[in-house]
Structure formats: C-alpha cells, structure tokens
Amino acid sequence: MVHMVKNIAIVILIIIVILQGYRIYQIRYQKSPVIPLKLTTGPPVLTKGMKLSDSPLAESAYKVYPGTMSAETKKVLSNFNVIMQKSVNGAEIILLTPKNSPETGQVYIVKSGNSLYFIEQNPVDDKSASADANLRDDYGVIVDNNGVVQ
Fold first, then answer.
1. Degrees (nearest 5) of the Cα angle 62, 68, 70?
2. Most buried among 28, 80, 127, 147, using CB within 10 Å?
3. What's the pTM value of the predicted model, to 2 decimals?
4. Which residues contact 99 (CB under 8 A, 6 or more apart)?
C-alpha cells in the first residue's frame, strides 16, 4: 500500500515537471504570449495599527460615536437598531443589531478619546430600511484620537 501511494506521488510529480517543461518550451521557442495569472483578492481589511484615513475603506466609514450622527451615518445604519449606554468606567457600550437578524448583533466598547466608525462597504445590498442582504460587509471600527485602528 505504501509503495502504491509512493508510486502515485512520483507519477504526479513527473506529470507536473513535464507540464512545466512544456510551458517553458512554449514560452522560449514558440514565442506564445504569456498570460499572467490574475490573483483575486478579497475586500480590504482594517487591522489594528492601521490608520483609517490611509485605507480604501475610509470612503465607506461613517462616524457613529462620539457626537451627533450625520444624516449619512443614519442612512447607512437604517437597517440597524443602535443602542448606546455609558458603562461604569465611563466607556460607551454601543450595540448595533441588524433589524432583519437581531441574533447577529455587534457590541463595541468605546473608551474615552476613541471613536466608533461604521463601515458600509456595499450599500447596494441594503434592500430596504429594514433588510440587508449581506451583513458581512457591515461592521464597526474603533479608532483612537489619531485615527489609528484599535
């Protein structure tokens, strides 16, 4: 059994080497155009330490807290129930609950000096004021007073 698996692995490696050799032959001697592989990438992601304003997601960021929410922020949050409550230590606890999926709420604890932004990468998927077809592109990001993601 071990020898059979080993033989299959060797045959697969030989086929790969032959295919690569043939590709190199085509490129060198037949002058066929090389078609580069397109690497697909997912949507941009914010990680701790990044500056929000330097990210392509800055255009999709809407300030939720502190301060009064703008009309644009209220519009992108129209599919969410927003609950804000002060904690004992002074931080703001913010709950964002999708109206059409209340079991998937998001909780953010925003310490003094920090801000919460809501990222809406694809507003087209918001079917109505109470339904959102894709909740995976809607989330909050906490940044410090320099705009650095926490």
1. 45
2. 80
3. 0.65
4. 79, 80, 81, 130, 131
Q: What is residue 46's three-state secondary structure?
A: coil
Flag whether pLDDT at 9 surpasses 80. no
Spatial contact of 143 and 53, defined as CB atoms under 8 Å apart: no
| Whole-number Cα distances in Å, 131 to 106, 109, 139 | 16, 25, 15
Buried b vs exposed e over 94-119: b needs ≥16 C-beta within 10 Å?
bebbbeeeeeeeeebebeeebbbbbb
Average pLDDT of every residue of the chain: 80
User: Per residue in 126-150, pLDDT tens?
Assistant: 554 545 555 556 889 999 999 999 9
**What span, in angstroms and rounded, lies between the C-alpha atoms of 23 and 14?**
14
Over range 92-102, report the average pLDDT: 87
